[in-house]
Amino acid sequence: MSxxxxxxTDVTVEPATPADRLDVMRVLDAAMLETDxxxxxxxxxxxxxxxxxxxxxxxxxGALIAVRPDPDRLHVDAVAVRRARRGRGIxxxxxAAAVDRGASDPAIEVVTAEFDPELRxxxxxxxxxxxxxxxxxxxRVGRRSA
Length: 146
What we know:
- This protein is of the alpha+beta class.
- It has one domain (11-145): Aminopeptidase (3-Layer(aba) Sandwich), CATH 3.40.630.30.
- The chain is built from four helices and seven strands, in the order βααβββαβαββ.
- β2 and β3 (60-70) form a beta hairpin.
- GO terms for molecular function: acyltransferase activity.
């Protein structure tokens, strides 16, 4: 992840396990991001859910769910960090890990994300090119080669 901001030293980012399901759901729910338990279970089984885990408490402090809408595309469907831990690089570390996972999969050519305009700087700092989403007025779409 050398072209990404430095990862926080007090968290590790790793694939979620079925035991992380409830924590992932809680982090997403607290951020008011909609996802259903079946999708979370499916994506955990596929290895496309990442968690940021505190090295001090071993608790989940952030989560990212990726989906594969096309065989050559990994899409960041949701990323959230517990409110008390925001602004410390945890979200960046999660997205960077998703991009790295995409880069390590020869089938994946691009990593995408759809987000609100106020997150533009966040995704640009991670190397995403940004465009308006014509299908969803006001939203933005980011793309980054894997």
